[in-house]
TrEMBL record:
<keyword id="KW-0433">Leucine-rich repeat</keyword>
<dbReference type="InterPro" id="IPR001810">
    <property type="entry name" value="F-box_dom"/>
</dbReference>
<feature type="region of interest" description="Disordered">
    <location>
        <begin position="1"/>
        <end position="24"/>
    </location>
</feature>
<protein>
    <recommendedName>
        <fullName>F-box domain-containing protein</fullName>
    </recommendedName>
</protein>
<dbReference type="InterPro" id="IPR050216">
    <property type="entry name" value="LRR_domain-containing"/>
</dbReference>
<dbReference type="GO" id="GO:0005930">
    <property type="term" value="C:axoneme"/>
</dbReference>
<feature type="compositionally biased region" description="Basic residues">
    <location>
        <begin position="1"/>
        <end position="22"/>
    </location>
</feature>
<feature type="domain" description="F-box">
    <location>
        <begin position="71"/>
        <end position="118"/>
    </location>
</feature>
<dbReference type="InterPro" id="IPR032675">
    <property type="entry name" value="LRR_dom_sf"/>
</dbReference>
<keyword id="KW-0677">Repeat</keyword>
<dbReference type="Pfam" id="PF00646">
    <property type="entry name" value="F-box"/>
</dbReference>
<dbReference type="InterPro" id="IPR036047">
    <property type="entry name" value="F-box-like_dom_sf"/>
</dbReference>
Amino acid sequence: VRHHPRRASLNHHPTSHVHRKPGLAGPRAALLSSAQNPDPPPASHLLACLDSPRHRPASPPPTLVAMDQGSVGVADLPAAAVEQILLLLPPHDRAAASATCRTWRSIEISSRLLYGDVTLDGHSLGPADGDGTARSLGSWLAARLEAIQHFKLWTPYPLDSLAGGVVDLLASANKLASLQYVSSDQGLPAALGSLAKLTSLRALQILVPGDGGASLALRARDISKLKPLRNLRAMRLSVAEIRGGLPTPLLKAWSRLESLHITSRFRMAGESLRHLTSLRRLELDGVTLSPPDASVAQGLKQLTHLALTPAREDAARWQELELWPALQRLPSLASLHATVDLLSLMGEDGTLGGDAVEGGVPEGILACGHLESLVLPMVLSQLPELRPGQLPALTSLALPSSLAERWPASWCLHLPALRRLDLSGAASLGRALPREFSALRRLEFLELRACGLEAVPAPVAALPALRRLDLGINRLAGLAPGPYLAGLEWLCLRQNPRLRALPAELAAAPHLAHLDLGECEALELGGADVRDVLARMPALRRLVLARAEDAADGPALGAALAELRRAAPGVAVDLRRAEGAFQTLC
């Protein structure tokens, strides 16, 4: 069943929008009140659309056959079928469809498939829309409270004045599972009292954009209003400053919290974390955290992930933070993500001074023997020699855009469990890998994007276990033979301007399923490439040949693609230029 081809224009309805989950019919549906809508088409018109020759399936399902014969009415369709029909319709036609009978109306307003995830966005509204929007939102939300599970409230003017009423309305049903509240309004502290009524919440995000609320600060007593939210499992708070920090009674009430993410300026005592006994993920950006003592660490025995960006005043001495030696006290910590705010380290001329990148990896991090995943900031002048027994469990290491100039051989010989390595943008490291690099024989994922490479480094070509390799944004003219090809499943060669021909070495990659040659503007694919290379890659399922919009395709490309279609019909070829530069390894 298809919807009627006429689509309602959202431009005529200056209202908020409802976002549905990706993959549903269209990204958003307008919130329309009956006063704003024109009279819906009659039910006979809708049924005529559903049963017209243009929209009728070639072999109608038994239900539609019965409807055509008059033995089954539109109200007799299963609820799941009605939901799928409504899912296909644009907002205006959906309103008309649900007006055909009470059953359809009941299914429409209670459908979590349609309205389980709702976003109210006030960016397109003006002052004149305020009163009408308030009435429309109230009636629309009231009818669907039972269906809404996840709510996003983005409140530029005039929706900021409605936020409290919207939250009160949601609290009347108290069935909401998650709420994202984005606001730069100075009335946010008062709105926290309304948020406290949503005791069903398991996830809460309060985000203040930097441009609109850079000076907005919350006080400890404001945050304390959220103490009734005892069912929270995930909390994210982004605000310029929290004066007085997080009160201890609040943290006690949040004892079930499993994930806490705070972006703000304030000092947090490590001792206050003792009450978060269920905490598994802790992310602090701009927060000055005193190190937890041994007793507090026992309270955090379930913490597995820690992400830390020091406050601006601590950025220049990030290696000296007292927190690093305390990491060994966290028995379950497996993932550490350490970053530094570069803006706080730059001089007036916009460059990093030499003193800003002095030093290496703190000893407290290297001594954390149970770490499995480690991300280090770019502001490293060197990697220290790694001693046996340091980071023995490490399986994933990322040094994106690192300024370190040398990759010590000890980092190849003493990381026996390493499987993932990201050196993207770390040009000095990527171009000067020692021959001992080939000792990383369990390495499966390697990113060498934007490293200025003109050839595949010999130690990389010797790696026998590689499954995914990113060599994009380099200056490669071809590939090197070697054991690394034998197990490759995913290879990115995007944006290598010197690559003019399909590397013949690819025929030695029998398991390669994804090959990205996008934006290699000098590459010319011909019939010989298909016969000699692509046709000899039995696992190939996706070939990316996306070009720049103004690039002219070579004359042989069409013939080559036709031959590829005959030789390997299971290969999907992507000729579209993707938004953004890359697909990620994860």
